[in-house]
Amino acid sequence: MALYQAGRYAEAEAEARSVAAARSEQRDDTYAPLALGIAALAAGAQGRHADAVTTYDALLPVFGRIFGAEQPQTLKLRSDRAQALSSLARYAECEAECAAVARVAARGTGPDMPLIATAARNGQVYALTALGRHPEAEALAREALAAHRVPDRFTLVLRLALVRSLNGQDRHEEALAEAERADELRRRLPQEQHRPEIGAVELAMATALHGLGRDAEARRLGRAAHDACRAAFGPDHRRTAEAEVLLDRIDGV
Asked: Which candidate, 250, 172, 178, places its Cα nearest to that of 216?
């Protein structure tokens, strides 16, 4: 996990799979499935979203049997899997699963449940935006932000989700203002907290600027987002692809 948080995704995946292989003969061992969960996260961070979903699919029944269907470990895995589905454009599945996880986590107890619910709500907002259901996405993002008032990575991703919903409604002035707030928050966070969102703030701002007709600024930020995402996650990551699409749109391709 330390390697993952440091952005060393290939090393994190290799180490996690090594741990899982070393313990594969121990039935109901907790370390092997947890390690494979990290491997799936790392695969997704390298843009191998289909590989990540395949690993999650294999892990789901194992987590349910070992940890229990409504325990934090299993709910987090379901949330991570659902958000990986969105990277494969399986948005309806992502939205439904994130909503289900959030409902279960909201009625659960323990310190991890609110964070799991917040993460799932973020995935749901992303999927709703991708499905073109922007007013629903905006309402859910604002509700989640009101419930989660800690200035951390979850607030950053929720604010970026709100920006997407506003851009989707052509409310670009509001979107730009929210993106600037997200940028201020990002600058205050430790690097390991905002590293998974590399390029996301620039992409959000560039989309709003393009909507306002400020294409020179939008192109500069869009290019910065693309280059940062390609360096951090590779050419196949969904955010790298989003930046490429935006640049093409700015240039009228």
From this structure: 250
Residue 223: count other Cβ atoms within 10 Å of its Cβ: 16
Which residue in this structure is represented by tokens 């229990």?
68
Written as six digits, the tokens of 106 are: 């909201």
Give the other-Cβ count within 10 Å of 103's Cβ. Answer: 12
Instruction: Report how far apart, in Å, the C-alpha atoms of 77 and of each of 68, 69, 71, 116, 216 are.
Output: 12, 11, 10, 10, 41
Q: Token pair of 235, please?
A: 């050419």
Q: Is the pLDDT of residue 77 over 80?
A: yes
Q: What whole-number distance in Å separates Cα of residue 207 and Cα of residue 199?
A: 12
Cβ neighbourhood burial of 227 (10 Å; 0-12, 13-18, 19+): middle
Amino acid at 222: G
What value does the mean pLDDT take over residues 12-27? 93
Sequence-ordered list of residues with C-beta below 8 angstroms from that of 52, at least 6 positions apart, any chain:
40, 41, 43, 44, 84, 87
In the predicted model, what is the mean pLDDT of residues 63-85?
97
| Nearest by Cα to 211 from 173, 154, 251 | 173
Pairwise CA distance, residues 232 & 201, whole Å: 15
Q: What are the Cα distances from residue 216, in Å, to 145, 207, 228? A: 32, 12, 18
Q: 109 burial class (0-12, 13-18, 19+ CB within 10 angstroms)?
A: exposed
pLDDT mean over 136-146: 97
3 state DSSP class of 139: helix
- Asked if pLDDT for residue 47 goes beyond 80, the answer is yes
